[in-house]
Amino acid sequence: MTKEEVIAIVKDQQIPVIRLWFTDILGQIRGFAITPRELPDAMDHGMGFDGSSVEGFARIHESDLMAVPDPATFKLLSNDISESHSAIMFCDLRTPEGDHYEGDTRYVLRRNLEKIAQEGLTFYVGPELEYFYFRNERGVEVLDEVGYFDASIVSQGTILRKKTIQLLEKLGIKVEYSHHEVAPSQHEIDLRYDNAMDMADTVIMYRFLVKEIARQNGVYATFMPKPIQSENGSGMHTHQSIFKGDQNLFFAAEDPYHLSGMARSYIAGILKHIREMTAVLNQWVNSYKRLVPGYEAPVYISWGQKNRSALVRVPRYRISRETSTRIELRSADPVCNPYLAFSVMLAAGMKGVRENYELPPPVEENIYEMSPRALKDHNIEMLPGDLYEAVQHLKNSDLMRETLGDHVFEKFIDNKLIEWDRYRGIVSQYELEKYLPIM
What we know:
- This protein has two domains: 99 residues, Ubiquitin-like (UB roll) (Roll), CATH 3.10.20.70; 321 residues, Creatine Kinase, Chain A, domain 2 (2-Layer Sandwich).
- 42% of the residues are buried.
- The longest helix is centred in the middle third of the chain and has 21 residues.
- The strands form two sheets. Strands 7, 8, 9, 10, 11, 12, 13, 14, 15, 16 and 17 form an eleven-stranded mixed beta sheet that branches. Strands 1, 2, 3, 4, 5 and 6 form a six-stranded mixed beta sheet that branches.
- The protein is α+β, with helices and mostly antiparallel strands.
- 36% of the residues lie in helices and 21% in strands.
- It is globular.
- It contains 13 helices and 17 strands.
């Protein structure tokens, strides 16, 4: 959609409010609303705002930023989700001089996608985002006690999920399927794969709609990675492939796993650099409560096809469906910043491709049941065990600094170290219950 088309639609449909969105460095939606009168100037020159008030953005002395709407992201919001008809657009952030702003995470992804676009390549992703419905935001009282693939069509969670899908489809966001997940009151809506930039925008919209529809119906939806101690957490398994035109470069008919040499080197890049990018894929203290053995989340750095305990899984090839060949990274969680997450996934994989990394043998046994000796024999190592360890790997990574850019790299690390310092000073209920009676 062009600028002229956007302006015409707003005028013809008498849209009273246009919402301009961008994300902070942690992937949280920020934005403001403008009237139709301001729209032409906003699309030509952007709308100014104070960047020093936004997480991870500019310092006080360089705080003026411009939000420039991207007409390709224009969507109309109906009364289903808004108090009246309104529109939204995602924005690119620029300096007053018109330069791309280095702290704009959407620009980080754009910059990384442009590198492979010069080779005629397109990066496709298909994320599976899990989430919970709770009675309210003050606790973890679930709406049901059922589990994986529950077939109810009248339960409250199923109805909310249906409403969300209907609205996503109305907005032109394609949904492949949805279902109840393993934990009580846990759900998943899977989005049809798309190019990484459009999908990152879609992830932001998806999370917003899930939470807003829940709120409208008197319950609370959360993408928190591990809200219930004794249950599985929520992940964002991310399917990935590289195309050149209509050709899926990950497919090879003669390979036992139907993986091309490029796909194998791409997986090897993910495995080699996963520790360095884990802080980006799992950016919260709570993220590491999910990444523990026994709750289906990946902990060990390995790959396989049938093995769902592996970090990277290769879904089975469907006959005559070469385009479906892909790899699935299973460690990311659904509250990461998708612009940064897709950037580091692509960078790690393509590093493996460009330097022809050799892929280690697959592991098809259940890794959770392996002894320490068996893990050593297979050369299987573990993901970082907490946020601090993950940040230390990130700090020492030249690849991640290059991928994110100096500004985002440094601001992200600063933010996460502040979070860790605050967390490690908290006395938990566990400590009170265990130690207070005996000390």
